[in-house]
Amino acid sequence: MDHRTDILTVSAMGAADRYAIQQGRSGAALMDAAGAGLARAIMQRWAPRACAVLCGPGNNGGDGWEAAAQLRRAGWAVSIFTLAGRDRLKGDAALAAAKWGGPVSPLQDCDPSQFGLVIDALFGAGLSRPLEDEAARLAGACNARRRAGAVIVSADVPSGLDGDLAHAEGPVFQADLTVTFHRLKPAHLLQPGRTQCGEIVLVDIGIPDGWRDAAEPCAQINTPELWPKVCGDPAVDAHKHSRGRLCVLSGPTGASGAARLAGSAGLTGGAGFVTLLCPPGALEEVAAASRSLVARNFDPAGDFGHILEDHRASAAVLGPGAGVAESTRARVLAALETHRPLVLDADALTCFADEPDALFEAVNGPVVLTPHGGEFARLFPDLAGRDALNKIEVTREAAQRSGAVIVHKGPDTVIAAANGAARVNVHASARLATAGTGDILAGLIGAFLASGEGAFDAASAAVWIHGEAGRRCGPGATVEAVLRHLPSALGALAHRRARMAALHRIAPGSG
Asked: In terms of Cα–Cα distance, which of 295, 306, 309, 237 is closest to 264?
């Protein structure tokens, strides 16, 4: 497994640093590597220009001192402005400052309008209070200067941004580039922090192997390497029934479109046989709208669990367009009693808003809940209102409480399992923010569940592939465009895996 997918909290990052020092890698060497990486990232992107480096009193400031020295040696005109005089610096930051041979000015002397590039090395990820005084003034002044064409670069995270919570309580630097070290922090992935970071570059500062035992990640970045068995080629002797039978509950006449989107995505995702279960009156509408989806009536007074058994469902999707009604609630509870893999989305979640514990107590077997922010708040109102937790933490708690895998949707979708595992997906596009795309996601998850995949990996894979389809859409894309791009998104995944397999087959040094 590539541990570069690991996401570390601020405290875990500190533990990784301490581990490196215990293994004989000095703090000064780590700071040198961080500062050199910061300078290198800047020089790779911009030509020399007048540069101001804002240095704080701690290790983040030390990274700034080292980057300033590197840029100056490369011919840049660099000025340092410090929040604390050199005589007040301690430890590795003091060592880094001692190597600087140029002038040093107090922070209040900095006028960002005189510089084409400003390096914010004031506080970094560990700051948990609002910026004050000169730091707050410079955040506003630098942001204004950025709008006039200057470049703002932050070391670790933009100062003012909480590295764990991914939001700021007051002024915050808006960076064009954020250079961070060793592993990403929550603020680099969760909104609004991710937007405030601009482009993000991760620099290896040489923390030795073994750090993971001392610094447990809080989550992982969702990538295909974490779920290598999902979306593989079907067996040579596969047939439609062996690839899984997916049932999708349809809404009534005039509201079957969401279920049809989910069913179509289920077929594209590899389910061998997809059946839309239609309440009275909807059968002709569904059958006329699609040549590939099988439509069947069901008795609205019947036990929905028995209906799924009659159709030999390997998995089922309930909720898209189903209606917020007592009948939907009853069908969800009946489906849960079968222990079949289920995806519960949209109306199947909202109909439990007044009594979410009734849903959670019924969860057993592989179940995936796919709430967007509003639905999450209805099911978990106490968690949604906890400002002291980030999206990873609230989603993990929700999964543990419900016993299901939670897909907490958004531009920073978090997938969490009841055992505490969590993944953050940022492989997506804002073009997915259109009606119906959530139905496609539900159908994809259903397809992977029907094929026998575990709920956590099925959800993770579907979110990534859904995001890839969104990235392939151009301006003006609608839900139909996302559906059209699903096959090429699956093809991109296959190509990526083939490329990785080829790289692994090349022996080191074989040329």
From this structure: 295
If residue 299 lies in a helix (H) or strand (E), which one and from where to where?
none
Rg of the chain on CA atoms, in Å: 26
Which helix (H) or strand (E) covers residue 11, if one does? helix 10-22
What DSSP string describes 198-243? Answer: -EEEEE---PPTTHHHHS--SEEE--GGG-TTTTPPPPTT--TTTT
**What is the predicted pLDDT for the residue at 236?**
58
Angstrom distances, CA of residue 406 to CA of 110, 154, 345, 366: 47, 33, 11, 11
- d(CA 352, CA 358) in angstroms, rounded, equals 7
Residue 4's identity, in one-letter code, is R
Taking 50 as the pLDDT cut, the residues of the chain under it are: 1, 510-511
Q: What is the pLDDT of residue 3?
A: 60
The whole-angstrom separation of Cα 435 and Cα 47 is: 43
* Cα separation, 449 vs 427, whole angstroms: 21
Amino acid letter, residue 97: A
Residue 159 corresponds to which tokens in the numbers above?
Answer: 């100062």
Answer yes or no: are the C-beta atoms of 51 and 70 closer than 8 Å.
no
Q: How far apart are the first and last CA of the chain?
A: 25
Tokens 């590039």 map to which residue? 117
Neighbours of 486 (CB within 10 A): 22
Answer left, alpha or beta for residue 198, where phi above 0 means left and psi between -120 and 50 means alpha: left
Helix 437-450 vs helix 455-471: crossing angle, to nearest 10: 140
**How far apart are the C-alpha atoms of 487 and 472, rounded to whole Å?**
11
Helix (H) or strand (E) holding 89: none
List, for residues 306-328, the tens digit of each pLDDT value: 999 999 999 999 999 999 999 99
Nearest CA to 220 out of 406, 409, 414, 407 is that of 414
